[in-house]
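Checklist before submission:
- one chain only
- standard amino acids only
- sequence pasted in full

Submission:
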Amino acid sequence: MMSDDKRFQNRAKLKKDKPKPSLPHTKKAGGNFNDKFRAYLALHAHALFFSLGRLLKTPFTSVMTIVVLAIALASASGFYLLLQNAEQLTGNLEVSNQISLFLKPTVDDLTGRKLADKIQQNPEVKEVKLITKEQALAEFRDFSGFGEAIKNLDENPLPTVVQVLPKNALEETEDVQKLVAELAHLPEVDIAQIDMQWVRRLQSMLELAHSGMVILNFVFGFAILFIMGNTIRLELEGRRDEVLIAKLVGATYAFIQRPFLYTGFWLGFFAGSMAWVMVTAVMLILKNPIERLSGLYEGAYQVTFLGFLESISLLSIAAALGILGAWIVLHYQLRQIKPD
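Returned file contents:
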């Protein structure tokens, strides 16, 4: 029989000589990462649809919250769209921002036409239009309401008028004033008139409206955060026992708050969608009356709607505000819920 020492030596030798299996470290690590990533996606998918299911179980409460949020979002986006249409309108107003040159009574239409051709050659002038004495009298007869009285006049008292449209009329007001002064010194011109005050007022009003839009959007943004926070707080109180049990079994804050964050996402997304419908419906209602009014003034105004990128931005901002409002409340409230 072998002695114990020899038996131990043989066993150690066999263990030493036995080949060790090679471990595929890269493959194993990759497999673990894929498994973790699939599990991560599965958890988020479960929380996403679980939160949607809970909203559908309380349709009245959910719809009321979504409508309130949608009204706030529609007000902000509607004001933005109103400014967009106003800026489009001011882009067409330079057609009516003309310099009117009232020629001297002794200047006939032929001389006025030569003067108009001369002014047209000025590089600062975009367009020139001549209104003869007969045309001015006809327009006055049609729109003044004194047609019968004008028939009793011995001669036409109205002068020939040259209307000059300057380039960049709305942007370069100082250059326009210089052009007016230059045209006023022409020997054929009796009066050169342009009303720039309404242009300045319009620009000031648009700048004020832009500032108001920014302030209004911030106010509505804070309102949405508060409404969302209160909604999630009530949801958290209703599921207090579930949160306590989850904490007792060792669940992390990220795991507990995930369904509530997705609830905020769904509320924001649905509110943004409803706001888009509201704004689009209002613009569709106003589209035909505005375009008819524009046609009466010989305009080609087209109502602007929310574009694709603007619509995506609206939905994204609404969903982000929903998630942010939920996170703010959860960050504080979850730490207040502790097992007794």
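Reviewer check: The chain has two domains: 46-92+201-336, 98-193.
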